[in-house]
Amino acid sequence: MSDFLENIFAQLERSADRVVLREVRGDQFVSVTGRELLDQVQQFRGFLRDSGLQSGDRCGLLTANSIAWAIFDLALMAEGLIVVPLYSRQAPVEICAMLRDCQARLLLVGDQASGEAIAQAWTGDSASLPKCVVGSDILSAGPTNVSTPAAPNARSSGHIITIVYTSGTSGEPKGVCLSVENVSHMLSCTTERLNQLMGGATEPDRVFHYLPFNFAGSWILLLSCLTRESTLTLSTDLNRLVDEIALAAPNYFLNVPTLLERVRRGVYENLAKRPAAIRAVFERAVAAWERQYMGHGKFSDRVWVSIGQALIFGKIKERFGPHLRALICGSAPLAPETQRFFLMLGIPVLQVYGLTETTGICTMDDPGAPGEPGYVGPAISGIEMRAAKNEEIVVRGPNVFPGYWNRPQETERVLIDGWFHTGDQGEVNQRGNWRIIGRIKNLIILNSGHNVPPEPIEDKIAQHLPGVQQVVLVGNGRGYLCVLLTGPIDAALVQPALDAVNADLPHYRQIRRFTLLPDAFSVDGGLLTALGKLRRTPINTRFATEIDAMYAAKNT
Predict the structure, then answer these.
(1) CATH architecture of 4-251
(2) How far is CA 382 from CA 87, 108, 395, 396, 515, in A?
C-alpha cells in the first residue's frame, strides 16, 4: 500500500490550477489551488527545518479549522514530525496536560492570545514549555529555505504521524498513536465508499466541513478530500452554518447526531407555528410515508407523499443546496426516527462508527444499499469485527492503532491477541450491519444486580419529549432508575412521556423519578465533550445533591 502523504502531494500536483480548499468568509470564499497549497507547505517545511526539530519530535497544533491548519499539518507530517492536534475551545489547563504528556517541543497557535493562555496555565518547570509560534506569522514572512524538496521525507509504514488525545468522557484523556499504515488503509476505505457515493461524477466532489480537525474522523475527512478530486469548503462561523451550507452547496458533509436531530426538531417546531391546514398536510404526508416505508402503503398514500414532497419535504431539502447526495453521520448512533426523517426528505444518511483507536472508522454504510435506521453499517474493507464477552465489539486489522503514548499498561488492557477491545456493546444482523447498544463503562448496575445500558432508554425518552436537550439516566448502586433532564420542557409532559417509555420496559429498567435542570449542559461547562457527548462522571458529581434528593423522596 502506498504512503498516503505521497498520494496527497501527487494529487495536489495534478490539481495545480484547481481550487482544493476554501474558507467561508461572510458571503465570500478565501481559496487556494493545489499549487498554492503545496507552495505554502514547502515554505513552512523550510521553517521547521531551520528550527532544529528532529524526526519523531511532537508538535502541538492549536488553531481553528482553516487553510493554514491544513498547511501546518501537511508540513509537519512531511518532515517526519508527530502532529498533536488540539481543540481550540478546550481549557488551557487541559491542553497543558496533553502537551506535557507528549513532551511537545513546538506549539503552533492561531494567534498570540492562545499562546499566552497556555504559558499562563503552565505549571512546573518552565523549561519544558514547548516553544510557541504563531503559524500565520511564518507564512507571511515569506520563504525561508528554497531548497526544501517537494516530496515528503521517507518513513516506514509503522512511523507514528499523529497523537490524537481522546475526549475523556469519563476519565483522563489518553494519547492515541496513529501510524502511516493506519491512515493509508483508512483512506483507501473512505475513497472506496466515496467513489460509490459519487458514481460517475465528472466534476470534483463538493464537500462542506464544520467539525474540528483535532478529532480523528474529522481529520480523516480532510485527508480524504486532499486525496481525491475535491473542493473542500471550511466553515468559519458556526452561528451561520445554515447560510454557509447553502453557499457551499455540497455533495456531502460529515455531521454529528446533535446537529441532525436539531434540524429535525427545528422543522417540527416551525411547523407547529404554521396554519392548521399546513400542519394537517404534513402530518398526513408523514404518516403515509411511514406506511410506505414499512411496506404497508396503499394507493392514497402515494398521493399524500407526493403532496408532502411538493409542498414541504422538497423545500426543506433545498436548504442543503442543489447538489446534495447524502449526509454522513458519526461520533454516536443516530436516532432511527431522525434517519427516517431525512430519508423522507429524500436525503440518505450514511452512518459511520469508529473510535480514535481505529483511525476514526470501523463501519460505514454502503451508499449503494439503503441504510438501516438504528444501524451503523457493515465493517469496512480489510478489517474484522465480532462481538465478544458481554457483547463487547472487538476489532482487528490495519486500522487498529499500535498503542497509547507512554501508557503500556493501558495499551495491554485494550489490545489482546491482536484484537482491540472497543468498550462498546454491539450486535450484528444477518445483513452484516452493526448496531451500537452503548458503552460498557456506562452500564448502570442496580443493587439488584441488573445491568442497564443507559443510552437506548435515554434515546427513547428524548423521542417522547420534544425540546429536551440532554437526558441522563442515573441509578448506579441504587434500587431503581431516575433521570436528569435539561431543556425548555413543560414539566406536565414529563411523566406521561416516562409512562410511555416505561410501558415497554421490564420493571428494573423503568424510570421512577425525574429532575428538571434549569440549564443545558455545555462544552465550556465541562459536562459535554467537544462532539456533544455526555461526560457522565462530572455530571453525576455536579448534580449529586439533586440525584440524592430523588432517592431520598418518599413513596418510591
Answers:
(1) 3-Layer(aba) Sandwich (3.40)
(2) 31, 35, 11, 9, 47
Grid cell digits, residue 293: 416505508
| Range(s) within the chain of domains with CATH label 3.30.300.30 | 443-552
Residue 30 identity = V
Total count of residues recorded for the chain? 556
Distances (CA, A) of 315 to 151, 309, 320, 354, 525: 48, 8, 10, 33, 37
- Read off the pTM: 0.85
H-type alpha helices, 122-240: 135-140, 180-198, 216-227
Phi then psi dihedrals of residue 480, to 5 deg = -160, 175
Q: Grid coordinates in use for 125?
A: 518547570
Looking at residue 378, the DSSP 8-state letter turns out to be: P
Q: Are 514 and 492 in contact (CB under 8 A)?
A: no
Which DSSP string do the residues of 9-78 spell out, in sequence order?
HHHHHHTTTSEEEEEEETTEEEEEEHHHHHHHHHHHHHHHHHTT--TT-EEEEE--SSHHHHHHHHHHHH
Which architecture, in CATH terms, is 257-322+325-440?
3-Layer(aba) Sandwich (3.40)
- CATH code of the domain occupying 443-552: 3.30.300.30
Q: Which residues contact 16 (CB under 8 A, 6 or more apart)?
A: 33, 34, 35, 38
The dihedral formed by the CA atoms of 543, 170, 89 and 103, expressed in degrees to the nearest 10 = 140
One pLDDT digit (tens) per residue for the chain, 556 residues: 579 999 999 999 999 999 999 999 988 999 999 999 999 999 999 999 999 899 999 999 999 999 999 999 999 999 999 999 998 888 898 899 999 999 999 999 999 999 999 999 998 788 889 999 998 888 887 655 544 457 898 889 999 999 999 865 545 779 999 999 999 999 999 999 999 999 878 899 999 999 999 999 999 999 999 999 999 999 999 889 999 999 999 999 999 888 898 888 888 888 888 899 888 999 999 999 999 988 888 888 899 989 989 988 999 999 999 999 999 998 877 888 889 999 999 999 999 999 999 999 999 999 988 778 889 999 999 999 999 988 899 999 999 999 999 999 999 999 999 999 999 999 999 999 999 988 888 888 887 777 788 888 998 898 888 788 999 999 988 889 999 999 888 888 999 999 999 988 888 889 999 999 988 998 888 888 877 788 888 898 999 999 999 988 754 4
d(CA 31, CA 16): 13
